[in-house]
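The records we work with from here on pair a chain with its fold. These numbers are not coordinates but entries in a learned vocabulary of local backbone shapes. To see the layout at work, look at the sequence and tokens printed below.

. . .
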Amino acid sequence: MKVVTKGDYRKRRHYRIRKNVQGTAGRPRMSVFVSNQHVYVQFIDDMAEKTLAAVSTAGKTSEVGAGTSVARAQELGRLAAQRAKEVGITEVVFDRGGFRYGGRLRALADAAREEGLKF
């Protein structure tokens, strides 16, 4: 019997999502990855295969402060929207990366919407 992990199921969901989600220069893909400790956000133009902007809670230069994981995700969502505006991005296609939409992911998305990012 084949052993299938949670990670394998997430990858399958991500492939299904990516079939339909495509980022362009006018409307890049907002790709989110959630690990046990950190959250990473990238704005990607799939046509040119370039990352336009990126923020995360990881690293020494992270601008996200301490707090609960949901509070940090909210702060990251605000920061991601501000960084996107600096680069000239107002509309995005949301790519949740196969993760369930809830908890940290929902907090991040709602905070980004509150800052004026449309998706």
User: Anything to note?
Assistant: The longest strand covers residues 39-45. The radius of gyration is 14 Å. The helical segments are 6-20, 69-87, 104-114.
